[in-house]
Amino acid sequence: MTTYFVFVDGLGAGRRDPERNPCLHTPGRLFASFDEEGTPARDDEVPLGGTYVPLDATLGVEGTPQSATGQTALFTGVNAAKLLGFHLWAMPNRQLREVLARDSIHRQLVERGRVTRFVNAFRPPPEPLPEDLWTDPRYVRLISASVWANRAAGNPVLSVPELLDDRAVSFDLTGQAFRDRGFDVPLRTPARAGEVLARAGRGLDLAMFEYFQTDRAGHREQLPGCAKVLADLEEFVLGLLHAIDPSRDTVLLTSDHGNIEDAPSRGHTLNPAQTYLWGRGSQRIAARLRDLTDVTPALVEAMGEEP
Ligand SMILES: [Zn+2]
After folding, report:
1. What is the CATH number of domain 3-305?
2. Following DSSP, what letter does each residue of 93-130 receive, concatenated?
């Protein structure tokens, strides 16, 4: 039994406006969930029997939700924005790194005898390596909440060898980003990358994957570019869903804040984070979710109930 935690950066539920919202333009309409006048809505059923829940990303703190605080909240259950008193963008600061080290979902599960892994493959860091990558200020400011959360459990950082034998997935799904830098890794379709994620998770209790092309596109691209990134993500998620056993496995897909669902705005939004569940226990977990801080406790509790 594996829980797959697919974290998608910058995917909110926006308005049903085909001129602005790329979620209306993917072939399977997987992300066609909306928030209009505060009313969560979907036009279609969630594909493959999934459940949709909008998550409040504002965390009760004024201002626009940002990545460091939102992701720390998602990966620990701690209201990181309230702790700092503001929404912190990009990478976690020292205070948030301490929260991640103490309360990370990986650490909580490993302390309960579970096996977890962050299955994104990273390019090997440039040589010569600093004496301690994890304390060198030049590197520390480049390390994301997901990496700190994984490290809190003593888990390794995965790279090219794991990518080559289907134990990891490239952050761009296809592996093109590795090939562009001269690494001889297979080029995968997004659907194939989804199957690889399913395989990488076998034998683990929790497999976490992070996709941040959505947030990049939301900041940089217009509607067609945003729709392409979402179509790739949709193909990837469907590939994963077809490769798991929904009677044994759970898939949770969520986000830290809105962005891509309003393509012309180029910034984060106040919209709720789109969140989906499939498979084992999904109704029960969904019923517990209101805001970003609910994800980690809901998953830890659900996994604690399993034999
Ligand atoms: Zn973000």
Report:
1. 3.40.720.10
2. -HHHHHHHHHH-HHHHHHHTT--EEE-EE-PPPPSSPP
